[in-house]
Request: fold
Amino acid sequence: MPGEVLIVGGGLIGSSIAWRLAQKGARVIISDAGTLGGEASSAGAGMLSPNAEFDKSSASRDLGLESMRLYPSFVEELQAETGIDVDFRLFSPHDGIVDPGALLRALHCACESRNVRIIREHVTSVEPRDHSAVVIAAGAWSERVRVPNVTLPAVVPIKGHLIGFQLEPGALGPTRRLGETYVLQRSSGFLIAGSNEQDIGFDRTVDPAICEDIHRRAARLFPLLENATPVQRWIGFRPRPVEGDGPHIGRVAGSNVWLAYGHYRNGILLTPVTAQRVADEIQATQASA
Ligand SMILES: Cc1cc2nc3c(=O)[nH]c(=O)nc-3n(C[C@H](O)[C@H](O)[C@H](O)COP(=O)(O)OP(=O)(O)OC[C@H]3O[C@@H](n4cnc5c(N)ncnc54)[C@H](O)[C@@H]3O)c2cc1C
Reply:
């Protein structure tokens, strides 16, 4: 593909699109403002649960199920390219987990070995004419990027807390969840309990009272946690679209700008399908130009 594709944001969404595009022979650059994926993508728990997360018969659920179908081959391909184990496990065809931090490392490694340029830069505005395509994938910050003649759909940060415990590997078994509360365990034994939702902007404070509440709720699901002490507590910002039922994925009509943000509670689940759709569309557009 001619010219360079600019991707704003190097979380799971931006990095996976970059990888898919680079596999197709595109020249790609990722600009990330921070520690490259150090926001929602590394904060997330890693549940892959389309049936539990979405309303029955909704377009979002169909998207989630499609992404779930893509997950095994996505992970297999990524692990074959990088040798990085992303701790992907399925408990049933529609219920699994993955380690989002490992997934990010693998994607960045795959991008680097395919010569994706990665730069640390806070992008305030982009000029689409300077690029073969532009992808806005800046999570909860996406709306703040200025693009001439384009009004980006609004997105709000929904803060969530998680707490982590170090337990014996295999202590939990499959993920348990009830309403807002869930517990899942990585192969290493690290157990994550979540969560809550707050619409209070980009407040990075970790609230001890909320963490204690999550601990109490999680112990009802998994009593072994009652006397366990959390070894980690952290927060992240889920990018929730202000309008519409699902993420903004696709081309802004009449432009070479693509949107890939607003994945809210399910960006880890929706990574494979988002990457495939956006990369395929960009390739098809450029092939026909
Ligand atoms: C507590 C919590 C639990 C979650 N659990 C799950 C789960 O179990 N399963 C699931 O599927 N999803 C889960 N999610 C949701 C999931 O983490 C997100 O939907 C997903 O990570 C969004 O990915 P992203 O790449 O769009 O955004 P991000 O990971 O936030 O990446 C955006 C990137 O853009 C960069 N950026 C921002 N502004 C600019 C700028 N101006 N210029 C350049 N770069 C910029 C940032 O530095 C960042 O690296 C959870 C989220 C949270 C917070």
About this structure: The helical segments are 12-23, 40-43, 50-53, 59-82, 100-113, 208-221, 271-288. The CA atoms of residues 20 and 279 lie 6 Å apart. The first strand starts at residue 4 and ends at 8. The chain has seven helices and 14 strands.
